[in-house]
Amino acid sequence: MATEQFTSLVSSVTQVASPTVKNPDDIVITLAIRTPMCRYKTGSFSDTPLDALVLKILEQTRQRSHLDPALVEDICLGNVRDGQAAQFGRAAALAAGFPNTAAACRVNRFCSSGLAATQNIANEIATGSIDIGIAVGAESLSTPNTRLDREFVDEIMAANQDARDCMQPMGQTSENVARDFGISRQAQDEYAVVSNNRAEAAQKSGWFDDEIVPITTHKGGKEIVVDKDEIRHGTTYERLSKLRPSFPEYGDRSTAGNSSQITDGAAAVLLMKRSKALELGQPIVAKYVGTAVAGVPPRIMGVGPVYAIPKLLSRYNLSLDKDIDVAEINEAFASMAVYCKDKLEIDWSKLNPRGGAIALGHPEAGSEGAVDQYVHGDWDGYGRTLRE
Question: Is residue 13 part of a domain?
Fold first, then answer.
């Protein structure tokens, strides 16, 4: 037993030292799919509640993986807004054809909940708790959901400013970032134009086709098939510059045009060790190397990548400039995206090359799950060191 533990430890250390080296114990992604991202309230998923979205993405995962569903041991659902997500996730998994031996849970780390679900499943596999698991990120913002509807208790509100700042709405935090770090309205609009134009070009070129699974659902009582992201076409700086501020009580730099679209959507990834994938004949589309989390002042919550990315890269002795071909950062607001890009000195040509959440939308928990698919798709034009 001690020898096995020592061998596992040595393997883990080796992975940290050489993340690009293939190892039988590598955690790999064998399937990465997502639904289209559809507009809030008016879009194709406006009548599709969370449990239906989760059911549909899990059905597609089971069918497209060609994997015996009895081999899946855990399914982790990342979701922010729905207090019933844990029940929905479990019921949807059973309805999708997974046996009751497949456990299910829900995780909420706000907008990175989908990524947290991936991290949870990967950690379970790495520690030997399970062999195969599925991570899902899903959000239905168009249908009724849970929102903070009161102040925190007096003891929290009186404790310190950071605790009180957790009450600030996201729009206010965007204006805080713009003001604190001097991100102009012009810089935000210019960034948003690029995000929208890249997404439009990617869609027209079919670059999203391999990751999007068509979803049959209902809207207005009629059956429809949804197979494309609902993005804006023909975005120009002139149009964006004429939009009014969305949060005038907090500032005048964030607008509907340079903020992420509110959307509904879901994404899923299937994970296992490299050795298990080879044993089962599963295609290896990517290698999961690691995840880092970092806390920041709540009033500027969107700057987290500035701290989490260097933390992760330093762990694996990687350089953002020399070793990373594609970087995906969630574009909750252009203020935060511009700050992160500039602070990290990311080459803009390799940051969100197919557009980001400003164009494609931000279904909260579904966004970070979709990032897995975006990066997977981006890799088609770059090196494949980690995926083969």
Answer: no
